[in-house]
Each structure stands twice: as C-alpha cells, then as structure tokens.
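User: I'm putting together a small comparison set for a docking exercise, and I want a reference complex before I start. The sequence is below, and the ligand is 4-(methylsulfanyl)-2-oxobutanoic acid. Could you produce the 3D structure with the ligand included, as structure tokens?
Assistant: Of course. I'll restate your input first, then give the structure tokens for the complex.
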Amino acid sequence: MHAYYYPQEPAVQGEAPTRSTVTTDGLLKLGVEYYRLEEGQDVDSQIDTFSSERGYSNRDVVNISPQSFGESYAEKLAIFFQEHIHEDEEIRLILEGSGFFDVRDKKDQWIRIALEPLDLIVLPAGIYHRFAPDEKNFTKAMRLFKDLPKWTPINR
Ligand code: KMT
Ligand code: NI
C-alpha cells in the first residue's frame, strides 16, 4: 500500500508534481482503516478471523478487467470512478492485480491509495471516494459485507 496526495497540475510549469505520502495514521484520521494480511499464511483463515471479529458475514469476489466485463468495461470503470459515498462501509481485499482507491480528505483533497495483493481497506460510510484500475487493468478483489450491503452509490 502506498497512499499519497497527487496534484494533477504541477505548481510550476516543467516541475514534476509532488506526491506527498499519507501514512496509515493519516488515513485513520479520516476513518480509513488499512490492514495487510500476513504473507505466506492461509488467506481464507485470515479473512475468516477478520470477518468474524467485525461481523462481516458475507463476501464475494469481483474481477475487474477488460476480459471479465467485455463491452461494458468502459461503462463499469466510469461508474467506479464517479465520486460517490455509501450508507455502509466499503471493505475491499485485493486478491490479485492492483488498483487505486481515491478518498477525499477533510479539506476535499484527493488522496490516492495504491493497493496490491493482501492489502485490505475499510472505507467508512459517508466518505467520498472512487476506484480506478492502474495501467495493468486487472483487479481481483474480495468485497466483505454484513447482511444486505447498502452500496448503492450516492454520486456527488
Ligand atoms: C466499488 O464499489 O466501487 C468497488 O467495489 C470498486 C471495485 S473493488 C476493487
Ligand atoms: Ni464505493
């Protein structure tokens, strides 16, 4: 996991945009929890433990790639990248591939959170966010949830 502010425009022409790192503490101040599963240990049992501690009784897996979505890939990405909030937490564990979750800080600045396999993120209800794959265009992620997730995006 690497989280950073990423100004889209360089402050001075010809100057590379800065990417100042945001620590896990910094994320936590926004209510964003980050965990990393132990490498080399059984993933399922780690998920079971985490889920039972937190009451996530359900899970599914999404595979985000041009192959899996076919013709609707661009449309799907546009939905994921539309800034939105949910009534519930959004809990995601990266299983394979990688991708970005962008969240707004308290001053409405974007923080980009780059995730790779074994990275687990909990976005609190009500935080503005969006998702984008990186240049590899492949993210396989587990979605953890309580009984009936209220993930209907509420667009900004
Ligand atoms: C969402 O709700 O936007 C997503 O689940 C994005 C894909 S999970 C990597
Ligand atoms: Ni969302």
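The first strand starts at residue 2 and ends at 5. Residues 84, 86, 90, 129, 153 surround nickel (II) ion (ligand 2) (CB under 6 Å).
User: Thanks, that's exactly what I needed.
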